[in-house]
């Protein structure tokens, strides 16, 4: 099934300026990994923010998992879109352990239920961080922190994950290793993903599809 549809989506931030995103259309099937590539300022992050619900399109519509979430008179806020997100700066809660960071979006009350605890264990295993559940973010390396952020995004089993330059704050060695891992982790989680990068090698090694953006347009989309 189709997980994500963008139909002629445009976004201009200020009157008299060029559109940051200009009539972009694309579709993503279940489990597909799409890398968005292009020079700084071409609209990659804006496109991600339109999918996430941090921006509203001026034109066109966005459909996630068969539901129109923006456009056609509809609007679903980010927390109702069932989308996982991973940012460049990880944004982990510094006062919470790894386990509590991952459980954050899963738990209902104060106690961690057995099913939440089990899911936290599963995603820690998925990202290769078993044994670090009780650490705090400052006790982890950058690569480990990024894996926690990924585990937190995957914990609720989203059909779609959005990643904004997920590896760019890491040093070169870690970045190269995490590239391969990121693809395997996303595939093992059976989630579709859109990730933004300005690194062509990275886009090609992680994704099934690569989209090249230029001045707000999606110029090319292919394997
Ligand atoms: P072909 O590879 O022969 O063009 P496909 O059925 O693979 O035929 O794709 C047709 C077109 O649809 C492609 O050019 C591609 O741009 C687009 N497309 C197909 N699948 C996807 C996808 N998952 N995400 C984005 N675009 C897609
Ligand atoms: P990329 O992620 O490819 O670097 P962006 O989506 O961040 O590109 O930016 C696309 C264009 O929109 C740029 O010209 C940028 O200056 C502009 N832009 C981005 N965010 C804002 C904003 N919040 N307000 C006004 N203009 C913005």
UniProtKB/TrEMBL annotation:
Keyword annotations for this protein?
Answer: ATP-binding, Nucleotide-binding, Transport
Origin: domain of life: Bacteria
Where found in the cell?
Cell inner membrane
Q: Name one GO molecular function term.
A: ATP binding
Specify whether ATP-binding is a keyword of the entry.
yes
Domain ABC transporter: start-end pairs: 4-223
- Does the UniProt entry include the keyword Nucleotide-binding? yes
Membrane topology listed for this record: Peripheral membrane protein
Protein name per its UniProtKB record: ABC transporter ATP-binding protein
According to its UniProt entry, this protein's organism is Spirulina subsalsa FACHB-351
């Amino acid at each position: 099934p189709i997980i994500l549809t963008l139909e002629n989506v445009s976004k201009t931030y200020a009157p008299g300026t060029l559109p940051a995103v200009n009539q972009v259309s694309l579709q993503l099937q279940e489990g597909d990994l799409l890398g968005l590539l292009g020079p700084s300022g071409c609209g990659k992050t804006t496109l991600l923010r339109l999918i996430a619900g941090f921006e509203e399109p001026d034109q066109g519509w966005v459909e996630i998992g068969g539901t129109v979430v923006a456009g056609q008179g509809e609007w679903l806020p980010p927390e109702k879109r069932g989308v996982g997100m991973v940012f460049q700066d990880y944004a982990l809660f510094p006062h919470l352990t790894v386990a509590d960071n991952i459980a954050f979006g899963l738990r209902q009350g104060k106690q961690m239920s057995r099913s939440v605890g089990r899911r936290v264990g599963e995603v820690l295993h998925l990202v290769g961080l078993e044994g670090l559940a009780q650490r705090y973010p400052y006790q982890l390396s950058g690569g480990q922190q990024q894996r926690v952020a990924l585990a937190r995004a995957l914990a609720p089993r989203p059909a779609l994950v959005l990643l904004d330059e997920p590896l760019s704050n890491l040093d070169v060695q870690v970045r190269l290793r995490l590239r391969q891992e990121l693809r395997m982790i996303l595939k093992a989680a059976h989630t579709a993903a859109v990730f933004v990068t300005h690194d062509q090698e990275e886009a090609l090694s992680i994704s099934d599809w690569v989209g090249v953006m230029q001045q707000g347009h999606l110029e090319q989309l292919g394997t």
